[in-house]
Each structure stands twice: as structure tokens, then as C-alpha cells.
Design a protein that fits this description.
Elements lengths: L7 E4 L10 E5 L2 E4 L6 E10 L5 E12 L5 E4 L12 E4 L2 E4 L4 E9 L7 E10 L2 E3 L8 E3 L4 E8 L8 E10 L6 E9 L5 E10 L5 E12 L4 E8 L6 E10 L6 E9 L3
Parallel strand pairs: 3-13
Antiparallel strand pairs: 1-2, 2-4, 4-9, 5-6, 5-8, 5-10, 7-9, 10-13, 11-12, 14-15, 15-18, 16-17, 16-19, 19-20
């Protein structure tokens, strides 16, 4: 399992006296919009901030995003929306000297008739490095963690953008200590969606007590995203309404409401 990182350094677990191996990638997400049967490309920059030359390898694997937003990196070609087989990486392997960076071209060529979205994770790894600290007698093998960037491809002119709030739950906490709220959004289209939104809490008279933002998210096709929100302000006995509004890039926003009752301690 990997988390996409942009312009951040990966630092390996180090024995005492060993030098850190630090490298980074940017950007942490690449979006391409080729036509059916066409090619689109972008550049991923890999940089080395360590004192050692590193042998770098770049591959494309499959991406899955769980309902809680955690990204899984899987063996390429396993998922129906895998972009790995259509992606060319150049260079795919190279030596990167200290304080240098390497632009890596990521090109995706989609077949004629392809529709919707294709997805993957660009994974960057380095070979282990042998180090002998100054004055030391032992040689260490230092392994840097892998870094990854999401690769999101929408085939131009074939996108079906559709989403809905499909479930809402609210549970008041004991002694009026707020409420735990869950909003479930489903991507009903054939391409990924970028979502952002907010929830409002209303009292029994319809007056707004306050609002909280929902985390921005990427939701893959035929997938759901569950947003868990903690309402930490105290509540008195009464009836409350949770109103959720989500913008997912369509012409209209989607909304949902849920009413719950807090009866007191």
C-alpha cells in the first residue's frame, strides 16, 4: 500500500550512523485527457537529495481507492480500469546523482473505441545502497521507501459524469458531546470525479447551527467514498437536521438531508 506524495522526500529506516537516502517526486498526481485512439503525455520529475547516487526505477501499477480514501497499489493489469498496459515510461530506469533531478515522460496511448477512464499509480523505487559510515567497521544496507503518484486518464468525449449521495447516518454522542456523521457518495459515471463539499447542522426551527467542510477526494468509477465527520460542539436535547452538499464537477450539485433526535443524557 502506498500513498501518493508530491514534492516530498522519502527517508528510509536507518541504522545508527548511516546516511539517509532521500529522494522525491513531483507532481503527486497526473491527469491526462487523450482522445480515443490517441496519445497524451506529461512529465514526472524525480529528484535526489541524498549524498549517494541512486539507481531509480519507474513502473506503472494498478490503483484502487477504498471507501475511506486509502489508496492501494496492486499488480498491473488486475483491475478493469488498469492503464498500465497502455502506458510508456521513458526513461524507466536510470542513475540519479546527488542534487540532480530527472524528468520522466509518462505517455498513455489508448486504443480506438476506448471509453471512460483508465487509472494507475506511477511507482518510483531505488535499489538498496551500501554505506560504510566514517570510522565505522560495519557496512549498512539502506533501503528507501517507494513513492507514488496517481495517474488519472479520462478519454476525451466519452466521459459520463454522474454521482449521488446514496446514504447518510448520524449518531449523537452521549451527554450531548456532539455527533458522528457519515455521508456516502457514489460515482455512477465512467470516469473519476473530484469532489468537495460541506455539511450543515440545523436545529428544529431550521436555523443553521454551523457547518463543516468535507475532505476533497478522488472517486473512481463504480466506487463509493465515505466521509466521516465529527461534530464536536455540544448539543442540547432536540431534533436536528444534517444537510450535505457535494460538488463533483457536474452542472448541478448533489445534496442530501438526514434528521436525528438527541433525547438528552
Amino acid at each position: 500500500m502506498l500513498v501518493p506524495l508530491a514534492a516530498l522526500l522519502g527517508v528510509g529506516s536507518l541504522p545508527a550512523g548511516a546516511q539517509p537516502i532521500r529522494y522525491g517526486i513531483s507532481p503527486g498526481e497526473i491527469e491526462l485527457v487523450p482522445a480515443s485512439g490517441g496519445t497524451a503525455s506529461a512529465v514526472l520529475v524525480v529528484y535526489n537529495k541524498a549524498p549517494n547516487t541512486a539507481r531509480m526505477r519507474v513502473v506503472v501499477e494498478d490503483l484502487n481507492i477504498r471507501p475511506d480514501g486509502v489508496a492501494d497499489v496492486l499488480e498491473p493489469g488486475k483491475l478493469p480500469w488498469s492503464v498500465a498496459r497502455y502506458t510508456r515510461v521513458q526513461p524507466a530506469e536510470f542513475d540519479l546523482e546527488p542534487e540532480r533531478q530527472m524528468p520522466v515522460r509518462i505517455a498513455v496511448t489508448v486504443p480506438p473505441g476506448a471509453r471512460g477512464g483508465l487509472y494507475g499509480m506511477i511507482v518510483v523505487s531505488s535499489t538498496p545502497v551500501l554505506q560504510t559510515p566514517a570510522g565505522g567497521k560495519a557496512t549498512f544496507v539502506v533501503v528507501a521507501p517507494r513513492l507514488a503518484a496517481r495517474l488519472l486518464v479520462a478519454i476525451r468525449g466519452t466521459e459520463v459524469v454522474q454521482g449521488a449521495i446514496v446514504n447518510m447516518l448520524a449518531a449523537p454522542r452521549p451527554r450531548g458531546a456532539g455527533a458522528d456523521i457519515r455521508v456516502t457518495f457514489r460515482n455512477k459515471g465512467n470516469v473519476h470525479l473530484h469532489t468537495r463539499g460541506e455539511i450543515e447542522l440545523l436545529d428544529a426551527s431550521g436555523q443553521r447551527i454551523g457547518k463543516l467542510p468535507l475532505p476533497e477526494a478522488v472517486v473512481l468509477p463504480a466506487s463509493v467514498r465515505e466521509f466521516k465527520i465529527s461534530w464536536d460542539k455540544s448539543l442540547g436535547p432536540g431534533t436536528y437536521t444534517v444537510r450535505a452538499v457535494i460538488d463533483y464537477g457536474a452542472d448541478v450539485l448533489v445534496s442530501g438531508e438526514l434528521t436525528f433526535v438527541y433525547r438528552g443524557p
